[in-house]
TrEMBL record:
Gene3D superfamilies: Tetratricopeptide repeat domain. Residues 1-51, 165-196, 210-240, 684-739 are annotated as: Disordered. Keywords: Coiled coil. GO terms for biological process: transcription by RNA polymerase III. This is TPR-like protein. InterPro entries: Tfc4/TFIIIC-102/Sfc4, TPR-like_helical_dom_sf. Residues 169-196 have a biased composition (Acidic residues). Residues 793-827 form a coiled coil. The keyword Isomerase does not apply. Residues 701-710 have a biased composition (Basic residues). It comes from Setomelanomma holmii. Residues 35-46 have a biased composition (Polar residues). GO terms for cellular component: transcription factor TFIIIC complex. The keyword Hydrolase does not apply.
Length: 1242
């Protein structure tokens, strides 16, 4: 009993007897407005904690009374405030770069945000689902436990397919290592790539599981009595004498009102044993007596996990809600909501079937706009009621429908699940008497709305009739289904209804058309209208009952404005403009708030089509001033204004869409000026490139990579644009340089020489002797006839004349670079053999060469274009000058060295193959050797930065052979540096270049097996790449009809060659299903903890290669690992399945009687027994494994032909396992014997 002489879980007197806790969306039915409900108070659900005075302990200890633990004074009224959900709209057009709301993910609660299950990979596009109010300060470190609700297998399996679909859309450099920041920068503003904003969806997997539970009687009020679960209050632990003494002293000081000393005793008791709830309880009372309510609540929250009682969490919620915001400003409304949510999740953790707590969680999630969570939680609540043989909660169904169809994206995601939930509920409701069932006309209308959104008009029409008959008490009148019309819902029996032979008029008050609500009748007409043009007459038969031509003060139009608007839209879409205007016109003439942009555009079109252009023109000013709140509205306005010839208004809106990366929406709706708009922005980008604006960012980042690769500080690299002062790693002291002068010299522009201007004498021209015309470029021996045309020749002559000193420096630099490469060839072999002097020499020389190559900006100006010439016109004079000086210096030195036929072409027939006179092969080789040496030296940052610099250049990026070599080099370096991330990235590139190669699928696992911490093996990019390969393989092997059935829909407007995350360019490489791919993806899922998902793909591989022993072992391990999970269903079954496959693995592995295979199989079986805790079976298996060691060694020795042999032996692993078993069991003597006999290294 509670203080109000009632029972706990009882609804307050003001609550309706049928338990209706939620209300419909405002304005949905009959214009009823939903109330703005205030925060509900919590009704505790279980034991309360007024500690009785005194509490007796074995030594006479007692605790003081705790007046703060009182019964709650207000009832729990789990009303969901619909004001939080009824205003949901489509996403706003991101006109500005406003900061996103702070995510709650920074708070390290186990229950904060979405629970991340094993194998779950967060996906972009779902960020809004993770926004939670911030908790009050100081709660970041509290230990809230995981909710069993969110960790249940049911929900994990329910959301798996959706998580996999979301994963494919992740193009985030933090998640996907294959999508770099440089890729994003190169693609920014590119109109061709901005069209890749299409969304791809997979069919939602339907997983049904039901565990039988004993039936319980139905309760009224919607609440379920919650039985005490096994996770209830744990047995009170013995505090121990020391803690008891401290608590006794704290009690004494508390009674004496010496709170400071009492608090000190309590804190010492908590430090001694924090698992004693009484200590936290006394601390809470002391803080309450001191007037610090916040710390009092904190003490209860800290101690609540030790008590494990749901009633305590209810009490915490009540006390939090009573906190005064003026006194405690950090406990504002949102902070209380966040804390309440955490407490409610703890209640669900303790009482998994606590329907009341779930109702509160649903309330909070709905108020926060978390659509997916509301739908998922609602389905879980319906499942709980179904398992207890209770009727579905109609209010939960309403909230699911409201949230799940709040916008187009959510509707696409959740519509199938919502429809299924409603139909499962209808199967139960339809068995009840209609007068007693809570499934009323309002619920029927919501269900029909879902069918309408799904476009199932035939099915919707059929279901409408069935449900209407049931609600009218005419379920047995199925003979109406033989009629093609809707005469059974006519207002009068004559003339149509009486023509049916089976119809018999029972009374004047018989329920047929008279009791059918207007909303349902309108649905009947709309379904007919959208179903077929042949049903137009029947549709209008229903719609005419709204009397659209009556515009008087008592007309139906003023009560059903929303229905008139919907009817007008439908008639206009069907092409019946004249009839549409009968419903539009009263709303338009009275400026009804029900009319949106689509309706106004429909009215405009109707006026045009009906020959009323003047009235249509009257609407143009209003449409120009229309405030578009969604992307859809902006796109429609742009297309509309273009069609009306208002190009300025159309382009203005199209530019907003283009800048915000919604260009594909314009193209999809047929915006004719799309190509011109794209060309304009492309021209702007090219112009920006000429003015350095597009290149500055890439150059600055390239300079940073140079610093990482070469270890140079700011003083050694010219980078005026880079203000970073971060300390860079160095190589430490280097050995003496091999030779002097073989390094890159910096070219600095000298100031212009002073000139003396003398008076001009006219007669001096006549007396000056004639000078012969030059035949070579000034300062060089390069003949002018070696330059292909006159204009180019003049430019080079001017360059040589005006930059003579720079040309001399460039010629010297050319000599130094060639000498450096010659020196490298001499010391490479010694460096590879480990000579420290040679290694330092290679690093020193190569560092200079890498810096020279990487600072040549022409190679990095645009890596998406092939390198064709050093004299490419980029609009950057400094870039051209740098390239021309280099080419001219190399030509001059070559002529000086004896070349007789130099040739300089501005546009050569073949792209240049050298840089500073050295072939690109040697430059790429220098990059690779430098990276490998750095990896061996342990400097992985410089190693991979060097490779990244090379790959950024168009020399490497556009040359498949060079790119392939450096990716292999990356793989080698990654293995040397023990870097799983870089190794996986290199193999993924190989998978992309050589798609559907079984060897590369195996290579992916091999390289990660060689890494100490293969954390990248089961990362997001791995899931994404492998799942895309599986989908592509399935796509290639299906027929066209099957592709449609399995949701492989063609996307005509999509770009990039992808169809629903299927790379159609690789379809030609698919030959058949590859078990290696299925097994690899299953291994990845297993490493992430998604064992049930992994089994799906293991069995696909098993169907192809059932006799693969490793595959049988993997399936067995997955079953057993899943059985070890806390919430595994039918654990015994899972273990039995796993052991069956383990035994089959053993039989297959030992069939050929190869010693190493027999030993391996025995060891793995022993590990399974060991993992299951069956050490009595594990020890003999381990001992057999040790006994096989000599046979393994002998077989390996016999197979060796060069006396240089080694072998894999599981003897030591088996011995260590036996040692561990004995040590844990306390048998030190046996553990020592095993160690001495096997594990001692002699």
């Amino acid at each position: 009993m509670d203080p109000r002489n009632g029972y706990y879980n009882q609804w307050p007197p003001g609550q309706p007897p049928n338990g209706r806790r939620f209300l419909p969306i405002s304005g949905t039915f009959g214009g009823v407005q939903g109330p703005n409900l205030s925060r509900p108070q919590v009704q505790p659900n279980g034991q309360q904690y007024p500690v009785q005075y005194p509490i007796q302990y074995p030594q006479g200890q007692y605790l003081p009374p705790h007046p703060a633990f009182q019964h709650p004074q207000a009832a729990f009224t789990p009303l969901i405030p619909l004001s939080a959900v009824e205003d949901l709209q489509l996403p706003q057009v991101p006109f500005t770069g406003a900061a996103a709301p702070e995510s709650f993910s920074r708070v390290p609660f186990a229950t904060s945000g979405p629970v991340v299950h094993e194998g779950y990979i967060p996906a972009p596009g779902r960020e809004d689902e993770d926004q939670y109010p911030a908790l009050p300060p100081g709660y970041d470190e509290l230990d809230f436990q995981n909710s069993s609700d969110d960790e249940s297998n049911y929900e994990r399996e329910f959301t798996f397919e959706e998580q996999m679909r979301e994963l494919q859309e992740a193009d985030n450099s933090e998640v996907d290592a294959d999508y770099s920041e440089e890729d994003a920068q190169q693609d920014e503003g590119d109109p061709e790539e901005m069209e890749l904003e299409e969304e791809f969806e997979d069919a939602d997997g339907q997983i049904q599981r039901r565990r039988a539970k004993p039936a319980q009687p139905l309760q009224r009020g919607g609440a379920l009595k919650v039985a005490r679960s096994r996770k209830g209050p744990r047995k009170v632990a013995d505090p121990g004498p020391e803690v008891k003494e401290l608590l006794r002293q704290a009690n004494d000081r508390f009674i004496a009102q010496d709170y400071t000393v009492a608090l000190d005793f309590v804190q010492r008791a908590i430090q001694t044993n924090p698992e004693i709830f009484e200590a936290h309880n006394i601390a809470s009372e002391i803080y309450a007596a001191m007037g610090d309510e916040v710390k009092s609540i904190d003490s209860l929250i800290v101690g609540a996990p030790t008590k494990r009682d749901a009633g305590l969490w209810h009490l915490i919620i009540e006390r939090v809600n009573k906190l005064d915001e003026e006194k405690y400003p950090e406990y504002y409304e949102d902070a209380k909501t966040a804390l309440n949510l955490r407490c409610l999740q703890q209640i669900v953790l303790l009482e998994n079937d606590n329907y009341e707590a779930r109702s509160h969680i649903l309330e909070i999630e709905a108020s926060l706009g978390h659509v997916s969570k509301c739908v998922k939680l609602g389905r879980k609540m319906l499942k709980i009621r179904k398992e207890k043989n209770r009727i579905p909660d109609t209010e939960v169904l309403k909230i699911m429908a409201m949230m799940g169809t709040s916008n187009k994206k959510q509707t696409r995601t959740h519509l199938v699940k919502l429809t299924k939930s409603f139909e499962e509920a209808i199967e139960i409701f339809i068995k009840q008497k209609p007068s007693e069932s809570p499934f009323d006309w309002e619920m029927i209308n919501i269900y029909l709305d879902l069918l309408d959104k799904g476009g199932q008009y035939d099915y919707a029409l059929e279901r409408l009739k069935v449900l209407a008959r049931w609600k009218q008490g005419r379920s047995k009148e199925t003979y109406w289904d033989d009629r093609d019309d809707d005469r059974e819902f006519d207002l009068e029996d004559e003339p149509r209804r009486v023509a049916v032979p089976q119809f018999k008029r029972k009374s004047q008050n018989a329920k047929h058309g008279q009791s059918l609500p207007q909303e349902i009748r309108v649905k009947l007409g709309i379904f007919r209208l959208r179903r077929s043009n042949e049903d137009f007459r029947e549709a209008m038969h229903h719609l005419e009952m709204l009397e659209p031509d009556d515009h008087g003060p008592d007309a139906l139009v003023w009560d059903y404005e929303d229905l008139f608007r919907v009817i007008g839209d439908c008639l206009h879409a069907a092409g019946y403009d004249r009839d549409a205007m009968r419903f539009y016109e009263p709303l338009y003439n009275n400026n009804s708030q029900e009319l949106g942009l689509m309706s106004y555009l429909g009215i405009f079109t109707c006026f045009k089509n009906l020959g009323k252009p003047d009235r249509a023109e009257e609407m143009i000013p209003m449409l120009k001033e229309w405030n578009a709140e969604t992307v859809d509205d902006l796109v429609r306005l742009a297309v509309f204004f273009e069609n009306q010839g208002l190009l300025a208004d159309a382009v203005q809106r199209a530019q907003i869409l283009y800048k915000n990366k919604y260009a594909h929406r314009l193209r999809k709706l047929g915006f004719k000026a799309y190509d011109e708009l794209r060309d304009e922005y492309t021209a702007q980008r090219k112009q920006a490139t000429g003015k350095h604006s597009a290149r500055k960012s890439a150059v600055a980042k390239n300079r940073k990579l140079i610093k990482k690769a070469t270890g140079r500080g700011e003083g050694e690299v010219d980078d005026a644009n880079d203000g970073s002062d971060k300390d860079l790693p160095t190589l430490g002291p280097l050995a003496e340089r091999p030779n002097e002068g073989l390094f890159r010299t910096k070219r600095t522009r000298k100031p212009a020489k002073a000139q003396t201007f003398l008076p001009f004498r006219a007669d001096s021209e006549n007396n000056r002797p004639a000078t012969p015309k030059p035949t070579t470029i000034e300062g060089t021996s390069v003949p002018l006839n070696a330059i292909d045309h006159r204009f180019f020749r003049r430019k080079l002559e001017a360059l040589a004349r005006d930059s003579a000193d720079e040309l001399l420096n460039a010629r010297a630099q050319h000599r130094e670079i060639k000498a450096s490469f010659e020196n490298l060839e001499e010391i490479y072999d010694a460096a590879e053999e480990g000579d420290e002097t040679a290694i330092n020499g290679v690093l020193s020389l190569t560092r200079e060469l890498i810096e020279e190559f990487s600072m040549f900006d022409l190679f990095y100006s645009n890596r998406k274009e092939d390198f064709v010439s050093y004299f490419r016109r980029t609009g950057d004079q400094e870039l051209w000058k740098e390239s021309a000086l280099m080419v001219l210096a190399v030509a001059a030195n070559n002529v000086e060295d004896g070349e007789t036929d130099p040739e300089l072409k501005e546009r050569p027939d073949q792209p240049p193959q050298d840089f500073w006179g050295v072939h690109f092969d040697k430059w790429v080789d220098a990059f690779g050797r430098y990276a490998i040496i750095q990896a061996r030296e342990g400097d992985d940052e410089r190693c991979f930065s060097t490779l990244d610099i090379a790959i950024r250049s168009n020399i490497v990026n556009r040359n498949r052979n060079y790119y392939h070599q450096l990716q292999l080099c990356r793989l080698v370096c990654a293995l040397a540096a023990d870097d799983s991330t870089q190794a996986s990235s290199a193999v993924r590139w190989l998978l992309k270049e050589y798609p559907f190669s079984s060897d590369f699928f195996r290579l992916y696992s091999c390289v990660n097996r060689l890494c100490t911490l293969p954390d990248e093996y089961s990362s997001g990019p791995s899931h994404k790449v492998l799942l895309r390969y599986i989908k592509t393989m399935d796509y290639a092997l299906l027929t066209e009809d099957q592709r449609v059935w399995y949701n492989f829909r063609d996307r005509k407007d999509s770009a990039g060659g992808f169809q629903n995350s299927v790379n159609v360019e690789d379809v030609k490489f698919v030959k058949d299903h590859d078990p290696a791919l299925f097994a690899l993806y299953a291994h990845v899922l297993t490493c992430g903890g998604s064992y049930m998902a992994a089994l799906n793909y293991y069995f696909r591989a098993f169907a192809i290669t059932p006799d693969d022993p490793i595959l049988n072992l993997s399936i067995g391990v997955a079953y057993i690992q899943h059985a070890m999970k806390r919430l595994s269903e039918n654990r015994q079954f899972q273990i039995q399945q796993g052991l069956a496959f383990i035994n089959r693995y053993y039989e297959l592995r030992v069939k050929e009687d190869v010693a190493i295979h027999v030993q391996e199989a025995g060891f793995n079986v022993a590990r399974i027994w060991h993992g299951l805790g069956l050490v009595s079976m594990a020890i003999p298996a381990y001992e057999k494994c040790i006994a096989l060691s000599e046979r393994v060694r002998k077989e390996t020795e016999d197979q060796c032909t060069d006396d240089n042999w080694g072998h894999e032996d599981f003897k030591f692993e088996a011995a260590f396992a036996i040692q561990s078993i004995y040590a844990v069991a306390g048998n030190a003597q046996a553990a020592k014997a095993v160690t001495e006999s096997v594990l001692v290294i002699e």
